[in-house]
């Protein structure tokens, strides 16, 4: 090891500290990687692996990427779950004695990305800390690209379930944890099944109570945790403290822009489990995970990236508090009615840049001149936005107005100091206005004067020497020079000093020229340094306003979302729902917000809904495949959800009693990758519903029991209806689509159960879908007609009809649960069993009928019995 070159020793010392990262080691214009890192990175990034002498016998494996294009390589590594430690030269190489000092300036991990081109503009990039202890689970998460941070905690046996729901909602890119075992229950595989994330074990001491408390107090400059509402929230404190520790370790930055952590409880919001989020296609479709076709796609008419992110959050977190929902709805109404104000606001919001991320970059010390100009342009529209808002009267909009700070001092500062079109980098000058800084102005003047003196020198020297082709040029190696072609060399004056010989010209300098040149270069160097310093000061000055800018950004984001709600409500004909605490859902002419958008105007058939936790709490919906059952049930769920987000809804009228959770069990899931059968998945989703639903929940069940035999399936479905509809158990508002027509018998037997079907019209051999939901049960499945519509060949359809007739004649499918039997005493259970028996053992029965027992010897009777038993067995 003594033989190592000093640079390699420096490298290895640093690598020792950042073992879990790929170390990007800055050497000149490159980031180099060595040893194992080089082997990994060359494979992942598909770059050439070379070697470098390191003082040892073998050359060190090495690969590198140019520093100016490092971002895309870093992004690739982060995407694959690696952490990248950026090591820079931290002193000027020309001033360094011996080897240049280097240090890691930042660690980039999947959840701590801030560079705009590594981030999705309309999505947050969350990192989460999980603290598992015997008492419960603490969760804290944040987005350092915006400065948001929130925390909560869960207790008891349901804690893992709540954790998974939160993870599904937040979709963190990275999770750090002290342990992923809760009360002997390992959680890792379940987390991985919910979200594609990166899990890293983090130091246990960072989660410890005293350390975590101190970390939080230090960061937020507090003496006690009461101010954050965390005084008695030990689990939240552990997670938050550890998260702050991790962020500081990786970012090596004070993270001033994270100026608060908000405590919330999951009960504040409507709870949606991962199945429901997916089934309702809130932010992406099930099929191809695209935004198009999701609820977000319909609702997103936002004009800012901040608004788009907030909308996503609102959709993920519908409210439960009537007053808060009402205040959003009132604001939407006002903006819907006041078209003029809305149009103006849309226009103005369109001019606002991503303030949240701009201010994070400013606070981080990453913002350039263009970022400040974007900030200025955004702030310039604030007075007009404020003016419009001051003429509006609803409380939510008034509240938004109160939170929009005009930030004139920031705007004025940028306006006075920064040129309108600054360059991308802050190390080349050209950023600060002359009028802002006299010294910069006079240096610029010196440069301009010098340059114009040089420009005039050309004509002066041409005259003096009589060389018409004489010209003055500049290059980086020699600076300014006078160039004379070979044919004119005889006229070159004595005092010209030769500098360089070309094929057909000579280049000269003069002392006078050199002096002016050094004045220009000196001034240029000075000005670049000075402008940099001034820029940093201005950026820091603006950084002091971080909180105000963030508050303004949040207010603008909320305004943007409300304007977007008003816009879709107006454009798509939505109405204001009435929000109540009553347990009812009463919708007149409701429509599916997404499906109706994919159809020509007016083609979607609107339907009513009445669920009231009373006579009408459980709707059993029958009807053929393709009739529109799923669409109808999802439409009800989405209307409730939109209402609780505070948006108008696609209906003529809607009264929505607050729903605490929506559960969906829809179709066959494709979780087969996890080694579970479709039926197993279906049953575990069902178990989740039965265990967690309350009387305030809305349950959507589509085809329960399909994944198993008819008898099993029907029995389970039947028992589920009995259980859910019963107040003693759950009594939640439920929509249940089923193929088991037998279930329609339950109306009149079970309290609150009502039958509905989606009507179809027979047309000869075919059916026409009317899409209208009506009271009563469907009497036929029309499966064969639907198969025909789907394009199954005439031969198969014909044969299917024959089989159906045959089966119906044998009546194989008529084993009814007890209630049915009670209601139909004419067909007793023995008879039913006989039906079944008859069908399955027809051969044996026929053989038995033929036995002439009176004319048999005992031996023959034994043989016959033996044969019959074998027939049965086979
Ligand atoms: P089911 O669940 O009964 O098999 P779906 O709900 O999947 O049927 O509906 C099948 C198709 O019918 C949908 O893709 C949609 O295009 C159309 N559809 C459903 N409901 C309506 C409606 N109310 N108005 C117009 N078209 C509808």
Automatic annotation (TrEMBL):
<dbReference type="GO" id="GO:0140664">
    <property type="term" value="F:ATP-dependent DNA damage sensor activity"/>
</dbReference>
<dbReference type="InterPro" id="IPR000432">
    <property type="entry name" value="DNA_mismatch_repair_MutS_C"/>
</dbReference>
<dbReference type="InterPro" id="IPR036187">
    <property type="entry name" value="DNA_mismatch_repair_MutS_sf"/>
</dbReference>
<dbReference type="Pfam" id="PF01624">
    <property type="entry name" value="MutS_I"/>
</dbReference>
<dbReference type="Pfam" id="PF05190">
    <property type="entry name" value="MutS_IV"/>
</dbReference>
<dbReference type="InterPro" id="IPR007695">
    <property type="entry name" value="DNA_mismatch_repair_MutS-lik_N"/>
</dbReference>
<dbReference type="Pfam" id="PF05188">
    <property type="entry name" value="MutS_II"/>
</dbReference>
<dbReference type="InterPro" id="IPR017261">
    <property type="entry name" value="DNA_mismatch_repair_MutS/MSH"/>
</dbReference>
<comment type="similarity">
    <text>Belongs to the DNA mismatch repair MutS family.</text>
</comment>
<dbReference type="GO" id="GO:0005829">
    <property type="term" value="C:cytosol"/>
</dbReference>
<protein>
    <recommendedName>
        <fullName>DNA mismatch repair protein MutS</fullName>
    </recommendedName>
</protein>
<keyword id="KW-0227">DNA damage</keyword>
<dbReference type="InterPro" id="IPR007860">
    <property type="entry name" value="DNA_mmatch_repair_MutS_con_dom"/>
</dbReference>
<dbReference type="InterPro" id="IPR007861">
    <property type="entry name" value="DNA_mismatch_repair_MutS_clamp"/>
</dbReference>
<dbReference type="InterPro" id="IPR027417">
    <property type="entry name" value="P-loop_NTPase"/>
</dbReference>
<keyword id="KW-0238">DNA-binding</keyword>
<feature type="binding site">
    <location>
        <begin position="623"/>
        <end position="630"/>
    </location>
    <ligand>
        <name>ATP</name>
    </ligand>
</feature>
<dbReference type="InterPro" id="IPR045076">
    <property type="entry name" value="MutS"/>
</dbReference>
<dbReference type="Pfam" id="PF00488">
    <property type="entry name" value="MutS_V"/>
</dbReference>
<dbReference type="GO" id="GO:0005524">
    <property type="term" value="F:ATP binding"/>
</dbReference>
<dbReference type="Pfam" id="PF05192">
    <property type="entry name" value="MutS_III"/>
</dbReference>
<comment type="function">
    <text>This protein is involved in the repair of mismatches in DNA. It is possible that it carries out the mismatch recognition step. This protein has a weak ATPase activity.</text>
</comment>
<dbReference type="InterPro" id="IPR005748">
    <property type="entry name" value="DNA_mismatch_repair_MutS"/>
</dbReference>
<dbReference type="GO" id="GO:0030983">
    <property type="term" value="F:mismatched DNA binding"/>
</dbReference>
<dbReference type="GO" id="GO:0006298">
    <property type="term" value="P:mismatch repair"/>
</dbReference>
<dbReference type="InterPro" id="IPR016151">
    <property type="entry name" value="DNA_mismatch_repair_MutS_N"/>
</dbReference>
<feature type="domain" description="DNA mismatch repair proteins mutS family">
    <location>
        <begin position="697"/>
        <end position="713"/>
    </location>
</feature>
<dbReference type="InterPro" id="IPR036678">
    <property type="entry name" value="MutS_con_dom_sf"/>
</dbReference>
<dbReference type="InterPro" id="IPR007696">
    <property type="entry name" value="DNA_mismatch_repair_MutS_core"/>
</dbReference>
<keyword id="KW-0547">Nucleotide-binding</keyword>
<keyword id="KW-0234">DNA repair</keyword>
<dbReference type="GO" id="GO:0003684">
    <property type="term" value="F:damaged DNA binding"/>
</dbReference>
<keyword id="KW-0067">ATP-binding</keyword>
């Amino acid at each position: 090891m003594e033989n190592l070159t000093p640079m390699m020793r420096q490298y290895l010392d640093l690598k020792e500290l950042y073992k879990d990262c790929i170390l990007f080691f800055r050497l000149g214009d490159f980031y180099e990687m060595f040893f194992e890192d080089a082997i990994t990175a060359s494979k992942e990034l598909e770059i050439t692996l070379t070697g470098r002498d390191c003082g040892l016998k073998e050359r060190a494996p090495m690969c590198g990427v140019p520093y100016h294009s490092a971002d895309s390589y870093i992004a690739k590594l982060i995407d694959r779950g690696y952490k990248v430690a950026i090591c820079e030269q931290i002193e000027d190489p020309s001033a360094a004695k011996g080897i240049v000092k280097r240090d890691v300036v930042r660690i980039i991990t999947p959840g701590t990305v801030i560079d705009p081109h590594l981030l999705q503009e309309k999505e947050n990039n969350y990192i989460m800390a999980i603290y598992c202890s015997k008492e419960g689970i603490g969760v804290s998460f944040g987005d350092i690209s915006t400065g948001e941070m929130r925390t909560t905690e869960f207790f008891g046996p349901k804690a893992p379930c709540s954790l998974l729901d939160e993870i599904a909602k937040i979709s963190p890119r990275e999770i750090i944890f002290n342990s992923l075992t809760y009360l002997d229950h390992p959680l890792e595989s379940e987390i991985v099944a919910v979200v594609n994330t990166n899990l890293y074990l983090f130091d246990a001491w960072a989660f410890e109570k005293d350390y975590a408390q101190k970390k939080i107090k230090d960061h937020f400059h507090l003496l006690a945790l009461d101010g954050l509402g965390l005084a008695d929230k030990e689990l939240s404190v552990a997670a938050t403290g550890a998260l702050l520790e991790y962020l500081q370790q990786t970012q090596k930055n004070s993270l001033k822009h994270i100026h608060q952590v908000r405590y919330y409880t999951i009960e504040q919001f409507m709870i949606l489990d991962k199945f429901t989020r997916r089934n309702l296609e809130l932010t992406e479709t099930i099929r191809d995970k695209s935004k198009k076709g999701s609820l977000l796609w319909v609702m997103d008419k936002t004009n800012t990236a901040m608004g788009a992110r907030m909308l996503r959050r609102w959709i993920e977190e519908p409210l439960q508090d009537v007053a808060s929902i009402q205040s959003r709805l009132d604001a939407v109404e006002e903006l819907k009615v006041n078209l003029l104000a809305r149009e103006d606001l849309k226009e103005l919001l369109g001019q606002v840049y991503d303030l949240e991320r701009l201010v994070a970059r400013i606070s981080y010390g990453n913002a350039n001149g263009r970022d400040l100009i974007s900030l200025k342009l955004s702030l310039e529209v604030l007075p007009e936005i404020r003016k419009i808002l001051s003429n509006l009267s609803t409380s939510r909009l008034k509240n938004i107005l109160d939170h929009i700070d005009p930030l004139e001092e920031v705007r004025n500062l940028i306006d006075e100091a920064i040129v309108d079109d600054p360059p991308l980098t802050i190390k080349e000058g050209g950023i600060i206005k002359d009028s802002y800084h006299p010294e910069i102005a006079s240096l610029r003047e010196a440069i301009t004067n010098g340059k114009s003196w040089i420009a005039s020198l050309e004509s002066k020297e041409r005259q003096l020497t009589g060389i018409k082709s004489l010209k003055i040029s500049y290059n980086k190696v020699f600076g300014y020079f006078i160039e004379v072609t070979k044919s004119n060399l005889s006229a070159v004056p004595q005092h010209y000093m030769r500098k360089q010989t070309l094929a057909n010209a000579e280049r000269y300098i003069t002392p006078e020229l050199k002096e002016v040149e050094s004045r220009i270069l000196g001034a240029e160097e000075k000005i670049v340094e000075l402008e940099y310093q001034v820029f940093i000061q201005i950026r820091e000055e603006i950084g002091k306003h971080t909180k105000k800018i963030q508050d303004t950004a949040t207010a603008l984001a909320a305004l943007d979302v409300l304007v977007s709600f008003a816009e879709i409500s107006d454009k798509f004909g939505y109405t204001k729902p009435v929000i109540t605490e009553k347990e009812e859902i009463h919708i007149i002419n409701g429509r599916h917000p997404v499906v109706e958008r994919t159809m020509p105007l007016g083609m979607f058939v609107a339907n009513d809904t009445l669920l009231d936790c009373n006579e009408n709490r459980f709707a059993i919906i029958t009807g053929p495949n393709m009739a529109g059952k799923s669409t109808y049930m999802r439409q009800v769920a989405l209307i409730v959800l939109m209402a609780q987000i505070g948006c108008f809804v696609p209906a003529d009228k809607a009264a929505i009693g607050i729903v605490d959770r929506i559960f969906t069990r829809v179709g066959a899931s494709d979780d087969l990758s996890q080694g579970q059968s479709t039926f197993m998945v279906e049953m575990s989703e069902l178990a989740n519903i039965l265990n967690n639903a309350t009387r305030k929940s809305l349950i959507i069940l589509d085809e329960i029991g399909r994944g198993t035999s008819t008898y099993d399936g029907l029995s389970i479905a039947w028992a589920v209806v009995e259980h859910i509809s019963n107040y003693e158990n759950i009594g939640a508002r439920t929509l249940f689509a089923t193929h088991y027509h037998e279930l329609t018998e339950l109306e009149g037997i079970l309290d609150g159960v009502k039958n509905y079907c989606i009507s179809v019209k027979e047309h000869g051999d075919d059916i026409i879908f009317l899409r209208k939901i009506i009271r009563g049960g469907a009497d036929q499945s029309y499966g064969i007609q639907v198969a025909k519509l789907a394009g199954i060949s005439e031969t198969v359809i014909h044969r299917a009809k024959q089989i159906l007739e045959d089966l119906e004649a044998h009546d194989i499918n008529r084993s009814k649960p007890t209630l049915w039997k009670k209601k139909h005493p004419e067909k007793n259970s023995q008879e039913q069993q006989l039906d079944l028996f008859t069908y399955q053992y027809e051969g044996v029965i026929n053989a038995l009928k033929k036995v002439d027992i009176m004319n048999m010897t005992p031996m023959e009777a034994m043989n016959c019995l033996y044969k019959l038993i074998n027939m049965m067995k086979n």
